[in-house]
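Supplementary Methods S3. Input chains for the assembly prediction are listed below.
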Amino acid sequence: MHDVLVIGGGNAALCAALTAREAGARVLLLEASPREWRGGNSQHTRNLRCMHDAPQDVLVDAYPEEEFWQDLLKVTGGNTDERLARLVIRASSTCRDWMRRHGVRFQPSLAGTLHLSRTNAFFMGGGKALVNAYYRSAENLGVDIRYDSPVDRLEIQDGRFVAACVGRERIEARACVLAAGGFESNREWLREAWGQNERGEWPADNFIIRGTRFNQGVLLKHMTAQGADIIGDPTQAHCVAIDARAPLYDGGIVTRVDAVSLGVMVNRDAVRFYDEGEDFWPKRYAIWGRLVALQPGQIGYCIIDSKAVGRFMPPVFPGVKAGTLPELARKLELDEATFMRTLNDYNAACRVGSFDHTVLDDCHTEGLTPPKTHWARPIDQAPFYGYALRPGVTFTYLGLKTDARARVHFGGEPSDNLFVAGEMMAGNVLGRGYTAGVGMSIGTAFGRIAGTQAARAALKEDAHAIA
Amino acid sequence: MQSLDALTRQAVALANGAAATAEVSRQMQICNACRYCETFCAVFPAMTRRLEFGAGDAHYLANLCHNCGACLHACQYAPPHEFAVNVPRAMAQVRQETYTEYAWPRAFGALYRRNGVTVALATAAGLALFLVLALAMRGTLLHEPLAGNFYAVFPHSLMAWMFGAAFGWAVLALAIGGVRFWRGQSPGPVTPAAAGEATRHALALTYLDGGHGDGCNESDDRFTLLRRRFHHLTFYGFMLCFASTCVATLYHYALGLPAPYALTSLPVVLGTVGGLGLLAGPAGLLWLNMRRHPLQGDPRQRPMDRAFIVLLFATSLTGLALLALRDTGVMALLLAVHLGTVMALFLTLPYGKFAHAVYRVAALLKWAIERRQPNRLQLGAD
Ligand SMILES: Cc1cc2nc3c(=O)[nH]c(=O)nc-3n(C[C@H](O)[C@H](O)[C@H](O)COP(=O)(O)OP(=O)(O)OC[C@H]3O[C@@H](n4cnc5c(N)ncnc54)[C@H](O)[C@@H]3O)c2cc1C
Ligand code: SF4
Ligand code: SF4
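Predicted structure tokens for the full assembly:
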């Protein structure tokens, strides 16, 4: 029998498995996916948010605890547990050396396209390289790993973990860490959560999942049924607007279209519906998924002209290109007359000052609803481009309630050998909203806590058994 | 003339399947939207200076790629993902296209696709046999020990003439290829700083360190410095052997000191040390090549890669054997075999794996120049 069973195969699970093994436990990790798809959403990540009081290896400047906390408070609107949040923040300042020891490499800070080298440490090669490094290290340390092993239920007695079941197989262990991600890949559940709108549509049917297809939320459902304490709201998810041509799963980072703030967004009825220039794109990026989800047919069209080309991250699919705006409307199958009215109204309302995409500039619209408050320039220089966008779900927030020892709770009582980490409990810290890189910070902090605690629980039990 | 040149090149490219460049272009479009591999090597920062990837860009980026494999294992879009991104393979295929397309004489470009261990070994064996026969006919194949006096077998002037011509041919063919490649690119003026940087990266094989110093990938996602080390052994071994030949030539003509040289003499020491490097390096490279991850690189080019490696190894092996047995009766035989091998190496140099050195250095130089120029894209604004 193994001491610690880790369920999941992403960042949180690997951190737990590695720490439990380092603490001397015999560890078995069960990953639902085949080997080629291992790593869940973690394989698509790019960086983790780190607190630091002074420039530190790959991080420039300082990002003190208080600032990190304020950022988190702002994006969550207070929907966070301060104690757990601060725990994550502090852990984020010291985890990099541990990560390096397990083979994770970071990019030197780049004068790149993202102004994030102050707050975020970037994985060299991205999340898949990180996941590979952790798996290598786990194998070297003697962690047993099984792919193609989706756990469908747990045996729990009086709040204690007894065994996990993969189909007909029953796997016992002294302690267990749940790190099987959210339920974003479960389209049925998303459909149920989002329900039917006033137009009679099921919005979630038009959602695209940005990450893995293996986060089906089976264990979240199962744990709810077993009476575990749940936190968060199933309709809350990180949802961005992505290219409508993206694959249903695993489109990852490349399907985002960064051009929204440079042009206008219209819906299926060819009318605008939100201020595209409200704030910098990284800050506003995450609101567009929900905005598009609320539009008819859950689709939006980003329209730019050639002045914008070369000013935003190149999208993975080429835009629909046209020599004139009416032609673009026809190619996008939008009502030409309404489209032209929308664009003409917008163009006429633009008050162009000095355009500068690096600051909240003074280019804005006047007398237009909704307004475009910055970077408003007429869309008038051929060729024109249009990108159809759909809501892309990054991850869900519903999870298991936990505490500073990562314990799963039943009716307010903590379990002594069942722990949780990563997306499955991220809602405790991030009840709403999102700030780049915090998902990995939570998973790394809680993965390591859960691993340590699980090893301790298992080895203590071992000592009892011997005595 | 210029446009005719371009036209021919296009035609050749089409015949060779412009599919390879189209594939690089497709994959670079994905990478450019992703950029997670930004710090592995020079390909990615060079890519971010572009929004589109024409044939010229594909050739440039393909030759900047050192086939280290890091971006394959790190790629979230690698097969079985439907995006099927495999940058090292796509780049390898375009590299071969580069060699073929810019080859001189152009008709010889096709050799890149027929170059294999068999061809190389056959060439070597054929040449060796030819020499052996020539000697046998003269009745000098087996002989009394000649105390290492090679010139008793082949007159020095004959050897100098033959190998000078073969080597000159190789240099000329490679130089023309390099110039043709360079003409398709317009990186701007070569500055000393850029030239220095390109040389440093070429000599140190910077981009085989993985960007983090742990090395590159071979059979799996583990990093190893072995390829870089074996490559260094091969290259510097070759250079020492070359230096040995140069010194010997100098001794012969400038100092009037003809071979054989003592074991402790400069040419022999250089040749021996170089020869040992040229044994260990290629052997290691061959071993790695056999174990490389099946997705990495272009498996169809393995015969070409291996042919070159084997020829290098054979050159060194026959050379060292010749040195060891130069005082015996088989010296002439060994000399013939060694010379045949070296001749095969020189003749196939411009039409085999060695070409990568020329194009890679050119691409590194272009990157060193380009990197110093302002980036016209303003993607960072958002
Ligand atoms: C495109 C994209 C980009 C992102 N970028 C970033 C970023 O740059 N920085 C950041 O901090 N966050 C980012 N995130 C969020 C981040 O991915 C998550 O916060 C983080 O990966 C969660 O880690 P995890 O280990 O909890 O879950 P996952 O990495 O999703 O792992 C869950 C694992 O559980 C397995 N599993 C599921 N069900 C079962 C079962 N029943 N039995 C066994 N195994 C099961 C899955 O196969 C998977 O391996 C991004 C997300 C996406 C989709
Ligand atoms: S190789 Fe893959 S992970 Fe790397 S930059 Fe390209 S698409 Fe991204
Ligand atoms: S294989 Fe290595 S050298 Fe080639 S592009 Fe990928 S990371 Fe760069």
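Chain B has two domains: 2-101, 106-369. Chain B touches chain A at residues 29-30, 32-40, 48, 51, 70-71, 73-77, 80-83, 211-212, 214, 221-222, 376-382 (CB under 8 Å).
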